[in-house]
Amino acid sequence: MTTNAWDVLDAEFEAGAQGPDHLPPETHPEIAFAGRSNVGKSSLMNALMGRRNLVRTSGTPGCTRQISFFGIRARDGAEFRLIDLPGYGYAKRSKDERDAWAELIEHYLLRRAALRAVVVLVDVRRGVEDKEQQLLDFMTTRPAPCPATILVATKLDKIPKSRRRAALAAISGNQRILGVSAVDFEGLPELWSVIRRVSAPAAERQ
Ligand SMILES: Nc1nc2c(ncn2[C@@H]2O[C@H](COP(=O)(O)OP(=O)(O)OP(=O)(O)O)[C@@H](O)[C@H]2O)c(=O)[nH]1
Ligand SMILES: [Mg+2]
Fold first, then answer.
1. Which of 17, 93, 188, 191 could crosslink 22 through cysteines, CB 3.0-4.6 Å?
2. Total number of domains constituting the chain
């Protein structure tokens, strides 16, 4: 059984935006996935949506070149969107290309009123590096309402079970962190319940 077969009734690709002018209307709460290229954003989204290949993944860093919008309909009728952001930190792109992406992502993260939370992904073996810290700091500069940031360590399956807890503690310091794996689905129910909570209407969120 796929991880969220019990909760995701329907998941579909809705729109792709390659520039700030192409963003779709803000019809539903949005949860965005951000992190460096190859960290596992698209794989995690597929696992969460219970779909193997809805979001394109690749062993080649820099695979995701646009902001992709996926519409979710849950069994209880809740509707929200998961957003796949292009990965940053992929050195092989030209500077112009990187600048255009940074502009698009910054525009989205700063201006999108529907944005409820940003899932910031780090590789459990690398932890929070400069780029991730910049992203976490950047999100605090956003004018209210400030979206939540959810720190998530991916590829947990790459380290032995006995070392996972210590590895997560070493990454997070005082912040809350969730460890996940898109391969063995570890941590996905916990992350899913956080996503459900932040995407719920304000009155239901507590
Ligand atoms: N072992 C393991 N491999 C993973 C996991 N998640 C992703 N991968 C692998 O990591 C590689 C990159 O995954 P993607 O999901 O395409 O990464 P991305 O962050 O979307 O990359 P960009 O689109 O380039 O920004 C692929 O080869 C995946 O199979 C995981 O939890 N465990
Ligand atoms: Mg991707």
1. 17
2. 1
Ligand 1 pocket member 63 (CB < 6 A): yes
Residue of 45, 52, 57 to test ligand 1 pocket, by largest number of atoms within 8 Å of CB: 57
* Residue 26 lies inside a defined structural domain of this protein: yes
Please give the distance, rounded to the nearest whole angstrom, from the Cα atom of residue 35 to the centre of ligand 1: 11
pLDDT in tens, 107-134: 999 999 999 999 999 999 999 998 888 8
**Whether the bond into 145 is cis, omega within 30 of 0:** yes
Is the shortest distance between the CB of 46 and ligand 1 below 6 Å? no
Cα–Cα distances (Å) from 47 to 59, 77, 141, 173, 181, in that order, read 16, 20, 31, 27, 9
CATH number at 148 reads 3.40.50.300
Give the residue numbers spanning the domain of 34.
Answer: 8-201
pTM over 0.85: yes
